[in-house]
């Protein structure tokens, strides 16, 4: 499953937000006022603060994550690095459980993934990493540093915390939200689901 580490964040974010919010009207702004400003949808002030994370996830989730184009990414290179493990989705464990297969047996499948095995064999035979990478499955684990201003994270979270989101990506978003809520509770310690305003017909993605 994905891992998340908060590696850098605007240290004086509340002082900076107060300074930014003060400019339109030339008067002091309290933390309570900032919360009201954000809740009313005036999110431009959040663009002055940022947070950076070190993330591990599957290449499949990376493909979804990079759709959020207001975030910035520096990813593990398939040309200069070797990939050695895959992430197994929860659905695979659920399927195995229904068939009486132990979790340990499913875990052992990581090293036996045929495409990952072919990738490693090609590298061992001298094929360049950039060419062997064509054998990599979407489930292979990768790593990246991702940076976004507070507004980018504020708008990212509801989309990927939603029950319709891919399970692995939802776990990633939950970990990011927890880091942000711990580090900047005045901004992120709230419900990002926005379920009351949801226009989807179902919580299931089908």
Number of domains: 2
Please give the alpha-carbon distance between the first and last residues: 23 Å
What is the typical, i.e. mean, pLDDT? 90
Query: What are the segments in which pLDDT stays under 50 over at least 5 consecutive residues?
Result: none
Q: In CATH's first tier, which class of the largest domain applies? A: Alpha Beta
CATH architecture identity of the largest domain:
2-Layer Sandwich
**Amount of beta strand:** 5-15%
Multimeric state of these chains? single chain
For this structure, the CATH topology of the largest domain is Gyrase A, domain 2
Helix content class: 40-55%
Rg on CA atoms, Å: 21 Å
Structural class given helices, strands, pairing? alpha+beta
How would a crystallographer describe the biggest sheet? 4 strands, antiparallel
Number of helices: 10
Describe the protein's architecture and organization.
With 206 residues, the chain is α+β, with helices and mostly antiparallel strands. It folds into 2 domains: 3-76 and 141-197, Gyrase A, domain 2 (2-Layer Sandwich); 90-135. Helix content is 43%, strand content 14%. The protein contains 10 helices and 4 strands; from the N terminus they run E-H-H-E-H-E-H-H-H-H-E-H-H-H. The protein has helices at 13-22, 31-39, 59-65, 90-98, 103-108, 114-124, 129-132, 150-161, 167-183, 185-188, and strands at residues 3-9, 50-58, 72-75, 141-149. The protein has a 4-stranded antiparallel sheet with strand order 1-2-4-3. The model has no long low-confidence stretch (mean pLDDT 90).
Key phrases:
43% helix; 4 strands; 206 residues; Gyrase A, domain 2; alpha+beta
